[in-house]
UniProtKB/TrEMBL annotation:
Belongs to the PIH1 family. It comes from the Eukaryota. InterPro entries: PIH1/Kintoun_subfamily, PIH1_N. One of its GO terms (cellular component) is cytoplasm. This is PIH1 N-terminal domain-containing protein. Residues 65-179 form the PIH1 N-terminal domain. Pfam families: PIH1.
Amino acid sequence: MEALNFLKNMQNLPSDFLSDPSTQNQMKNFWSMLDEMAVNNPEEYSKFIKKNLEQGAEEFKESSGKSKFQGEFSYCIKTYTENKRQIVLINMCCNENVLEPLNDAREIADRGKVNTWRTIPVSFSKRREKKVEGKKVMWYFDALVHSVVIDMALKDLKFKAYVTGTVCMRLEMKEKFKLLYEKGEFDYFESYKGPDNEPSPQPQFLDPAADPEEYKKYFKGNTHTELTERTNSQKISELSLTPKPQKPKSTIEVLTSQPVLQPKVQEISEEPKPQAKKILIEEIKNYHIKISEDKRQGNVEVNEHEKEVEIFIHLPDENGMKGVILDATQKSIKVRCLSFACEVFFDKFSLDDRSISAKWLKSKKRLIVKAPIII
């Protein structure tokens, strides 16, 4: 912060003062210090620059009259970075001032038609961290979405999983790291998580892509307009330590171009089909499996246990769970992707469809679905 204050003070000084030898000597020493830091300790230099840019952006928001909003905590997502050295805790919070979900036309989507939601705006707080055992570090974030998103996530566990994927993907884009949520390595907590055991979220400024006022500046009606001017806060946030050959896209252009996964997976089966599909039926014990004949690049195994069933689905043409749609009821589990489609029906018992879990084994290209049995 000292560096930022130094630069701001220099801007406010009269021009003749800058010609003073002592002032020039002070400036020379200051830049020499930064040059030396950049050569001898580039990591600390990067942190130093980034910290001052972030603080400068915060000060600009405060001076420009922007308001901070405090979210209402709902639940916490726990996951890991790719190397598992960082534990990431994302506190899901809501506030009515956040931009609502958008449809294909980039307009506010109908709250009652979740299947029309294509983009869920998210605003993240600054990263906070705390060292734990060994070399591991806990990273803490508050994710702010509109209240209607949280309301739907609490009603529908499948939609809650989609929100988790969307929020983690946006956080990856913002922080430039890779998370393991796609491999099923995430948990939920009912209490707020912070480095200093804070009881509730802290007030935060909205990211431009989640701010209704900022959004209206760049999108008029149904037409996606080119960004002609950037606010000073965006200029600061887009500064890089190394020059880029291409003009970077604005935050809104990047985030709103990312489609949200289809929330209502059960509606997919209602799409009109050009012709009837042939179905192969395999009878096995207390259940039977239907496999679509035109999507057979895979195989299914079912193991029955006393309290749960396990379904192993080998999908050699898939690289992860992104393209796999899972739907479940108390009497069946349906899995669909581009190369394979099947449905397992349970004839003599029912499943607890609220507690079904799925995990992707990358090395074996296998999806494992576990479902508790209820009598």
